Every structure is written in C-alpha cells, then in structure tokens.
Amino acid sequence: MCGIIAFLTQEGCSDSKTPDLQAALKQIQHRGPDGDGIWVDSHGQVGFGHVRLAIIDLEQGHQPISNETDDIHMIVNGEFYDFERIRGELEAVGHVFKTKSDSEIALHLYEDQGLSFLDTLRGEFALCLWDSRKSVFVCARDRFGIKPLFYTQINGRLFVASEIKAFLPLGLKAEWDVESIVNSGFTAGSQTVFKGVSNLLPGHYITATRSGVINIRKYWEPDFADKNIVETRSAEEMIDGVRSRFFEAVRLRLRADVPVAAYLSGGIDSSSVVAAATTILRQNNPNAKLTAFTISFPHGKHLDESDIAERMAKHCGADFKKLCVSEADLSAAFDDAIWHFEAPVQELCGIAKYLLSRLVRDSGFKVVLTGEGSDEHFAGYSFFMPDYLREPDTSFNCDIDQRLAKLETIETSHHPWFDITQRDMSYTDAIVSRRMLNGISTHRVLASTWCLPNEMFNDAILKCTGINEPDPCMAMATTIDGVARRKAKTKWHPLHTALCIEQATTLPNYICIHEGDRSEMAHSVEARVPFLDHHLTEYVNQLPPSVKIKYPIEKWILREAMKPYINEELYSRIKHPFIAPPAENKNTPHGIYLNKRLTREAIDAIGWIRWEFVEQMKANFFEHQSRRAQNILNMILSLVVISERFKVKRFGQE
C-alpha cells in the first residue's frame, strides 16, 4: 500500500524541465511514511514516484521496481492476494524476482501475458508501468475502485497520481469543473470537481505513447444472472458457495508481515469479517485473537452500535477497542478530512471513519479488514426493495404474495423501505432514465441523496454550461454503458440492474473513497475488503435475486452462510446503515460551525452557488431541523474547504 505519481512527456510538451516528483510525493507522504523512491528514464521523458507503507517484504519491497533487464518499470499502490502461488508459477517458467513483495508479480505477469495480465490480478490496486521496449505507458485501476487513480495533462505531459493534491507542485492550477459539477460527474462518472482532472474508472486501464496517443479501455465489468434461465442449484448449495468463497477471501487478506486488525460495527458485514478471520486464525493457533475497532456516538444513542459490536466481539473472543466520537470531534476534523477526500460529503460518517483510522494507527496497526461492499452485492440497502418487487423471480420460481400491492405501498407512502426518496425531494422522476433502466427507482434514490441540488446553481454556471435543467437521474443512468443497459432490459432482474448502478456510482465514488481509502490512508492505514474479492462477487452476481432478498429479509444468503459463526443478535438484526449522528441543531458544535463557515463571502469566493439557496438551507436546518438541509450544507461546506485548501480559482474570474 502506498501513494504513487507518474508522468509521461508527450509530443508538443512546452515544459523542458523534469517534473519535481519529490515535491509531489510530499503532498501524499501520509500514504507511505516508510520510505520513498523515484525513477526517471535517462531522457527525463518518463518518471515514477512512490511513497511506501510497508506491509509485505518489509526489508526489500521498495519501489519503483523493474524486471531483470531493466526495460520495464512499475509502481503499485495496493495489495495482490494469492501472490505466492502466482509467483511460484512464474518462477517455474523462468521469471527471476528481485523481491519477495506481492507487487512484483504484476510486472512479471505483464511480461508473460501482455495487457491481459490484469485478468490474473486479485485484490485492490492502482498501478503504472513503462515498457521501454514498446514505448508504451500503462495505468490500471482495480475492478471496484477500491484504490484511487487520477490523471491530468499539464503542459503536454500526462500525469497520474493516487491523489489530486499531488498534481499541485507539478503545475496544476485548480479550477472548478463546472460541467462535471452541474452534470454530477464527480458522483456518477469519471470527472472530479477539478477542471482537467479525471478519475480512472474501476476496471479500466490507460495506454499512452510519447506521440500523444491516449486510449482508455475496460478490462472488467460485472454481469448478473440471466432471469430467463431457471436456477438448478439448491439453496444449500448456493449458501455453501458463498461461505467457501467468502472464507477464502478473508484468508487471503490475513496474509501480511505486520499485525492485522478489523473494523467492527453493529451490522452483519463487519461481524462476518471478524467471525471468519477469527475462525481462520484459530485453525493454526487456538488462542489467536483479532483486535476489533469500533466507533461509539454518545451524543447519538439511536445511531450508536457499539454495544452490539462489543457483544459480537465477545462472541468471537476478539479484543475490543472503542473510540467515543462527539459531535465536536466530527466538526473539528471536518476540514482536514475533506482535504484528504478531495470531494464533497453529505453526511459525517466518512469523518468518523477518518477519526477511527487514526486510533488504528496509534494502536500500532497498519492493516484492517473492513465490511464494505457487502450491501452492494447482497442487496443490503432498503431502497433496493422496490426494484426487487418489480418483477417475479422466475429463475427461482419465486413470486411474492401480493407483490405489486406491496410495491405500490412502498412507492406511494412514507414506508421505511422507500422513505429516502421522499425527504425534501427536489428532483422529478426522470421518466426517460427509468425507461433506460427497465423501470428501476434506485438511480433516483442515489441522485436525490448524493448529487448537488439543481436549485443550488446560479445563472452564471448554467449559462456557461448551456444546461438549463441538470438531470442527475440521467447522470446515474448513463454510468453503465449501452451493453449493460440492453442486458437490463432483456436479461437482468430489476434488482440486479439496481445493484449494477450502485456498484458503478456510490461504491467507487463514495464508499471506497470517503469511508475507505481516503479516511484510512490519511493515517497510513491499509484497509482490505473481503466482500470486494472478485471471485466472490462474480459468484454472488450470478445468484438469483430471491436468495439475496427473501422478502422481507435483506442479505438472506449471507445471513445463512454466516449463521454458524455470528451470534443470534446479528443474524436476526435488520440492516441499519452506518451513519454518524448529524448536528442536533444550530446551537450544537457542528451547527455552530456550519453557520460560522458558510458566510456570503465564502460562497461568493466559489462563484457558482446561489447565496439565497444557502440561506434557505440554513433556515430549513436551523428552524426546522431538516436532515436533508443539513446534508446539503455539509456538501456546500466541503466545497468551501476545497476552495480554500486547494486555492481554487473563483468561477468567472479572468
């Protein structure tokens, strides 16, 4: 695990100086405090920089790395699992390794398989390589977007880095990407809030040459069971299939040359990880104990799961460490967390994870196992329920009694399963985008939750972009390509289309960033995500909808797979999303901070936000305690912090 920066000088470059990679690495030193390395080719045309968090092969696993003939160079951020088996196979056919690290297998797989080497890699990663024999530059990102990778062009050079801030010493002048902002590109696409800076999509790779050619291609995408084909496996067979693959994913992620801990909440996902890890560790050492970290919110008892987590830790015999986080703690950490996130947040849960990761580091751990990715594959969120009810599951001969009546009840009332779409909704139900996705509603829920409200934009930004009516629902719908949308209409059950949209939007652009890599690597902590092992997810994606949701129980098959290992409380507990308590009112710490920071001067410095809208949101929160208004204010405050910390040029300023 580390931070990386790379450049390729292309034809027409107007800057003769070699980029200062050391200055760029200082911006992301938090990602790798255990050493750094730089390689630049003899002509100064290609260069790699790397800061290291030492996890595997502590003594020799330094980067950049090269092959034995020094004509291929590579840097890697992340972890490759099952690497010792792959290494053995490569050595058997003559490959010579310089280190014992997991990262080096990628270089030799590329030599052996060309660009198909990505198919063999298993884990979370972002990487860059330079093949001087073919004069080609390659960058790639893992299948789910667990590890970040950004790219930009400055003065005729292509730059790639783990974080956007690394581009600042290399000449990036931060400006707002107004088209991305209006079109929700930073939430539902490859854009960011910064003009000219893009986010390499999960499951994609870049090839580039010195002549100026840049190609971006997909190497992996999720697929789902064909609803027209009858499922022949028994429920028990599928339960066993989930259990065996999940345990394998956990076992592989316990491999490290440093101690491994885990996050534990009051949900089945992290509890399953802790239970599986403990079971595996005790196969070799009956007295083995895993350390589990959790968050407590004394000021928001209705959202505090620490007691449940502690009971589960006791059930597994894990050492239990609890961090008590107050509203004042969350508010005090807000600005620094946003500096690391580099994108807006609408709730404070990412800030809480940022604080928990600091405790993990201070407790002497570099690696934690986490439960992210389960809800997106086992259908854990309540807003998936309507899309499950849209069609019968004919593949498993399952139809719910009065299914359509239940669906209508959810969609026409403030039913708990669908209430997220009712709160302060400012978006119309985009008919065209629903047709594109075979009538699902999940994309509408995501748009209403994560995208900036249309009413926020002033006339200047709308005139500049030529967009009179931004359509965040359409932005969500177009995150999957035409091939996937065709499958949504003809092959996939609506639940699986909903899962596909969630996996393409919120998972890489929020869950894996704010609650994942950025909150953890800010404190030099590597998170490993067993539920995002592609061997597991590819199996789960091919299961029928009715074993994921057994109405009204979500994640049914995961519950059954883990029933022998978790306590009854967790087995029976319905899904409660991890949410940090919001500010109680304008007189509590975060309410005071919002009011203090969101001034007209701060908003005017951005240049594209309507001050009248900010005033209205303040009134909605301060006078009526609107949760939705507070979330919007958090997003606006995030933009203020980004504006200040990155010295973003005011929109409209010459």
From TrEMBL:
Site (Important for beta-aspartyl-AMP intermediate formation): 372
Gene Ontology CC terms, in alphabetical order: cytosol
Name by which UniProt lists this protein: Asparagine synthetase [glutamine-hydrolyzing]
PROSITE patterns per the UniProt record, alphabetical: GATASE_TYPE_2
Alphabetical list of Gene3D superfamilies matching this protein: Glutamine Phosphoribosylpyrophosphate, subunit 1, domain 1, HUPs
Positions bound to L-glutamine: 102
Record-level GO BP terms: L-asparagine biosynthetic process
Recorded family membership: Belongs to the asparagine synthetase family.
Metabolic or biological pathway, per its Swiss-Prot or TrEMBL entry: Amino-acid biosynthesis; L-asparagine biosynthesis; L-asparagine from L-aspartate (L-Gln route): step 1/1
Active site: 2
Keyword Methyltransferase: no
Binding positions (ATP): 295
Cited CDD domains: Asn_synthase_B_C, AsnB
Molecular function terms, GO-annotated: asparagine synthase (glutamine-hydrolyzing) activity; ATP binding
Superkingdom field: Eukaryota
Keywords: Amino-acid biosynthesis, Asparagine biosynthesis, ATP-binding, Glutamine amidotransferase, Nucleotide-binding
InterPro entries: Asn_synth_AEB (IPR006426), Asn_synthase (IPR001962), ASN_synthetase/amidase (IPR051786), AsnB_N (IPR033738), GATase_2_dom (IPR017932), Ntn_hydrolases_N (IPR029055), Rossmann-like_a/b/a_fold (IPR014729)
Stretches assigned to the Glutamine amidotransferase type-2 domain: 2-211
SUPFAM superfamilies found in the cross-reference section: Adenine nucleotide alpha hydrolases-like, N-terminal nucleophile aminohydrolases (Ntn hydrolases)
Pfam families recorded: Asn_synthase, GATase_7
